[in-house]
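hi! just following up on the protien thing from before. the input was this:
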Amino acid sequence: MFKKILITNRGDVALRVLRACKEMNIPSVVVHSTADADSMPVRLADESVCIGPPSSADSYLNVPAILSAVAITGADAVHPGVGFLSENADFAEIVAAHGLTFIGPEPHHIRAMGDKVEAKITAAAAGLPLVPGSPGAVDTIEDAKKIGAEVGYPLLVKAASGGGGRGMKVAETEDDLPEAFSAARSEAKAAFGDDTVYMERYLGQPRHIEVQVIADSHGNVVHLGERECSVQRRHQNIRRSPRQP
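and the predicted 3d structure came back as:
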């Protein structure tokens, strides 16, 4: 059992982790930006540490500040929640290198599936069907235009890191591509600290079906069945339910 868990997230994500900590009688620490100093997670946590100004890049993505918060509070585990650093393999490795437990996947699993470019490469190697798009990351607008000419429009420019609907921009035509490419990279950099993007054919009305899988370090694995997540706003799920026939 952990002695103290440091939560590197905010909002409802941090609240869920806090509830689990309280149910398990594990002391909790919430890190926060100056903008979130009076937030519900900060008020409910056993301890809180300010790690920077409102910008996510200077606070929730600020690894040195997070490690300082660990040292100050004596936490022995870090829970990243979702988004921010939760899919950053380098962060997971740094946490482990400091003798702490990263509550999440192993770094090599994050690299294989957390990075969407690597995830597509892994899926292709396994023979799974993929949405047509770039074979890897797209670094320049010139390369983006070449992919657009090959794949066709509309196209989705998408952040390789993170999630939550951020870093995703649609280009209906080639004329829209420069703005979509620049906006996606800027948003990805601000949200995840990584401006790597890739491209794929935009599907206007897809079905979003998930199978949630939970595993632990002891080899226990369980799936929670299918769930329907197709009702979205700005590429963000707003309703999840058991899948209907």
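The longest strand covers residues 221-228.
The two ends are 41 Å apart (CA to CA).
cheers
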